[in-house]
Structure of DUF4806 domain-containing protein:
Amino acid sequence: MSAEETDLVAAVTDIGGATVDEATKRMMTFLLDHALSRQYNFLGRNGKREFKALKLYEVIYGGLKKNAMTSQITRKDAEKAVSKWLIGARDRGGNRQARQATPQQGL
């Protein structure tokens, strides 16, 4: 890991969180804006980019491992938490309200 990546791991570790999901949410919100988060899913399916292949995923995982509250995390736990956060990207920024306000087609 480069010095920049190590510094970034230290920065996201300081963000904290009491659970894996909370810490992941706080770290991902710190690192990605709404527009960027909508371009990714964990495995890069359905025309989106793959988040798992990014060094940023290793930074998140490293931050979760160094967080005292989440240090027992496995890679599978981290994958599930990051994937869950990315799935919710389309609802952030008021998009859920806008989507619910639009009449559903074909019902």
Notes: Residues 3-93 form one domain. The mean pLDDT is 89.
